[in-house]
């Protein structure tokens, strides 16, 4: 293991020495390695793999590659550390969670077989002549068609002749080969039918030349949602005219469970109202709200309210669960009834009686089968009991054993076949 680490370190030092020597000798990186240029937009995600930008796969998540690849950053003077806060190495690529102008510069990757040189240029969002950098996030409806435009194309004087698209790590050409119904038209990727699996990151690359060949790379995050349904909320609990028991002077929790259909502008309202017999109404203080269940196209939310102390007015009032979405609102009422005192007293009486019966029954069982229990303990427990202890703690036992020379067929397999005994205290 240590030999392998030593060899890797030696190879890395040799590579770095050769590279620095090339900088000092020619003052030009291109005289040593071919430079692959990348353009990225500040404030977005970015991916740069240790391979040619024209590779059929955008990246490779293999752990073995991650261990065998070394990344360095060079500023023309010395080696700089990789920003570990916003740059993560995964597989054979660097993932920029939020690329910034400070990340611009030269990057080297060394895989043992080859070494590659990349130059990253980060375009600021402000201070450039481009006013429309395009959308890096789009939302599609499942079952419908989708259109993804390569963002930022209008920022360049001439539109690119070829745009390469990727979904995840696979190119669009590979997806076409497996029968995916999509089409590339100019700088636009058309999805004829959107599926749940299309919730992914799509990447577009196009090239232009300015001293070196630059690859402009933009990532587009695609979200897939269900078709919006104009449905009212559905109150799952309480049911209509529901009645719950409550104890005077005790706290009470009111629970309202509501199911909502999917809506893009989802702003649900759930609250508890109390209406007194004199016609007055007030809103209860809400306790907590949480999402119980979420599936594609709907979600269920539970809202509770707490009565600190149930009183006579609460028993005469009605409680209303109010639920609302952009389509409208629905309500369901609940009333409280006093829990019978006889039932409460019965519970107080029954509980000790049940415990007493259980304890008494256990004592009787132990008393009746104490000898069997003792023998089982002697047979299976690791401790040993001396004869003196047995004589002091137990009354005398008389065993009468008689041989049975001719056991019957029915008792041949009995554990005490051939003997009969009498135990007497």
UniProtKB/TrEMBL annotation:
Alphabetical list of PROSITE patterns matching this protein: IG_LIKE
Ig-like domain boundaries: 124-204, 233-337
Membrane topology of this protein: Single-pass type I membrane protein
Localization of this protein: Membrane
Keywords: Disulfide bond, Glycoprotein, Immunoglobulin domain, Membrane, Receptor, Signal, Transmembrane, Transmembrane helix
Leader sequence segment: 1-22
Predominant place of localization: membrane
Transmembrane regions listed in the UniProt entry: 348-369
One Gene Ontology term, aspect cellular component: membrane
CDD domains: Ig (cd00096)
UniProt-recorded Gene Ontology molecular function terms: interleukin-18 receptor activity
The protein, known as: Ig-like domain-containing protein
């Amino acid at each position: 293991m240590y030999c392998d680490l030593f060899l890797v370190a030696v190879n890395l030092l040799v590579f770095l020495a050769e590279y620095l020597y090339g900088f000092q000798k020619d003052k030009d990186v291109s005289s040593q390695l071919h430079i692959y240029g990348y353009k990225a937009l500040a404030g977005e995600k970015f991916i740069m793999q240790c391979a040619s930008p024209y590779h059929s796969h955008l990246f490779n998540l293999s752990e073995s590659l991650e261990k065998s690849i070394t990344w360095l950053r060079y500023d023309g003077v010395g080696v700089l550390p990789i920003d570990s806060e916003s740059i993560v190495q995964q597989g054979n690529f660097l993932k920029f969670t939020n690329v910034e102008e400070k990340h611009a510069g030269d990057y080297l990757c060394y895989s043992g077989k080859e070494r590659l040189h990349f130059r990253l240029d980060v375009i600021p969002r402000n201070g450039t002549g481009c006013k429309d950098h395009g959308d890096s996030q789009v939302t599609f409806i499942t079952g419908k068609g989708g259109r993804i435009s390569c963002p930022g194309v209008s920022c360049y004087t001439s539109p690119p002749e070829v745009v390469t698209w990727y979904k995840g790590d696979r190119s669009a050409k590979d997806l076409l080969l497996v029968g995916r119904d999509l089409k590339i038209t100019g700088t636009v990727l058309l999805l004829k039918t959107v599926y749940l699996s299309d919730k992914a990151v799509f990447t577009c690359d196009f090239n232009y030349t300015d001293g070196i060949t630059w690859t402009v790379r933009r990532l587009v995050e695609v979200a897939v949602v269900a078709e919006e349904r104009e449905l009212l909320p559905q109150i799952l609990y309480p049911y209509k005219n529901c009645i719950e028991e409550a104890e005077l002077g005790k706290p009470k929790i009111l629970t309202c469970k509501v199911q909502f259909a999917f809506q893009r502008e989802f702003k649900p309202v759930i609250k508890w109202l109390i209406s007194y017999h004199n016609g007055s109404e007030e809103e209860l203080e809400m306790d907590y709200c949480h999402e119980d269940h979420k599936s594609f196209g709907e979600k269920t939310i539970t809202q509770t309210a707490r009565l600190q102390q149930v009183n006579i007015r609460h028993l005469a009032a009605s409680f209303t669960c109010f639920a609302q979405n952009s389509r409208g609102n629905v309500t369901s009422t609940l009333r409280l009834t006093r829990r019978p005192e006889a039932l409460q007293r019965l519970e107080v009486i029954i509980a000790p009686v049940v415990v007493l019966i259980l304890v008494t029954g256990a004592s009787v069982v132990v008393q009746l089968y104490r000898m069997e229990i003792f023998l089982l303990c002697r047979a299976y427990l690791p401790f040993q009991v001396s004869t003196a202890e047995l004589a002091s703690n137990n009354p005398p036992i008389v065993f009468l054993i008689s041989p049975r020379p001719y056991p019957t067929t029915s008792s041949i397999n009995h554990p005490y076949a051939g003997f009969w005994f009498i135990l007497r205290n």
